[in-house]
UniProtKB/TrEMBL annotation:
Taxonomic superkingdom: Bacteria
Native organism: Rhodanobacter glycinis
The name this protein goes by in its record: 2-dehydro-3-deoxy-phosphogluconate aldolase
Family assignment from sequence similarity: Belongs to the KHG/KDPG aldolase family.
Record-linked PROSITE patterns: ALDOLASE_KDPG_KHG_1, ALDOLASE_KDPG_KHG_2
Pfam families in the cross-refs: Aldolase
GO molecular function, one term: 2-dehydro-3-deoxy-phosphogluconate aldolase activity
InterPro entries in UniProt: Aldlse_KDPG_KHG, Aldolase_TIM, KDPG/KHG_AS_1, KDPG/KHG_AS_2
Pathway in which the depicted protein is active: Carbohydrate acid metabolism; 2-dehydro-3-deoxy-D-gluconate degradation; D-glyceraldehyde 3-phosphate and pyruvate from 2-dehydro-3-deoxy-D-gluconate: step 2/2
The entry's keywords: Carbohydrate metabolism, Lyase, Schiff base
Gene3D superfamilies (alphabetical): Aldolase class I (3.20.20.70)
Subunit structure, as described in the record: Homotrimer.
EC number(s) on file: 4.1.2.14
Length: 217
């Protein structure tokens, strides 16, 4: 296996853990571990912590060290420095909103599997040429939603997508029914008000609902 094939195999396993990858914004470090425990208790094991707050890397470190069963990833990765910092903190996968040549070079040189975002067939083809078999459609709903992905299934059958951006519990099934969708990403499992209130039981319930969604994989 080439290094890229190994990373794609790792991504396939991570994206198969549950129908939904929660996209999380953590404002307070103390929320990280109980939130991740609630998600895992509800059946959601892969968790994407976005690098949008100052505590994000520490949150990744805490979840990786303390939450049994969690597979923590890093989101909103824009460059190779962030990729390496997240790997060192314990992230097992990385997600980016798009794919710049420099970020892709850094991902090739490093060990962390990257799930890059695309919004056009041309971008997907460029990544296919670099060995990517798993991509994020971003922002999924504004760029065309499940109809766009359905239209790509026939000409681009080698690629499995994790559409993210604007998806909810009620719209997720339209995506998950497609043959080229591995899972969906979404922030609805960890709403700001529930994090702020420490409503871990509420987050576990949202995770349970998401984990019960059916996929077509
Ligand atoms: O920054 C990244 O790498 C991301 O993954 C961005 C997320 O896809 C969106 O923030 C999803 O947010 P919702 O539309 O609220 O579900």
């Amino acid at each position: 296996m080439t290094p890229q094939e190994t990373k794609q195999q790792q991504l396939a396993e991570i994206l198969a853990l549950a129908p939904v990858v929660p996209v999380v914004i953590i404002d307070e470090l103390v929320h990280a571990v109980p939130m991740a425990r609630a998600l895992v208790a509800g059946g959601i094991r892969s968790i994407e912590v976005t690098l949008r707050t100052p505590v994000a890397l520490d949150a990744i470190r805490a979840i990786a060290a303390e939450v049994e069963g969690a597979v923590v990833g890093v989101g909103t990765v824009l460059d190779g420095y962030q990729l390496e910092a997240a790997r060192a903190a314990g992230a097992r996968f990385a997600v980016s909103p798009g794919a710049s040549p420099k970020l892709l070079d850094a991902a090739d040189a490093g060990e962390l599997p990257l799930l890059p975002g695309v919004a056009t067939a041309g971008e997907a083809m460029s990544l296919l040429e670099r060995g990517y078999r798993h991509l994020k459609l971003f922002p999924a709903v504004p760029v065309g939603g499940h109809k766009l992905l359905g239209a790509w299934a026939s000409p681009l059958p080698q690629i499995r997508f994790c559409p993210t951006g604007g998806i909810s519990l009620s719209s997720a099934p339209d995506f998950l029914a497609l043959p080229n969708v591995a899972c969906v990403g979404g922030s609805w499992l960890t709403p700001k008000d529930k994090l702020k209130a420490g409503d871990w039981a509420g987050i576990e319930l949202l995770a349970r609902e998401a984990a019960a969604l059916r996929t077509n994989r």
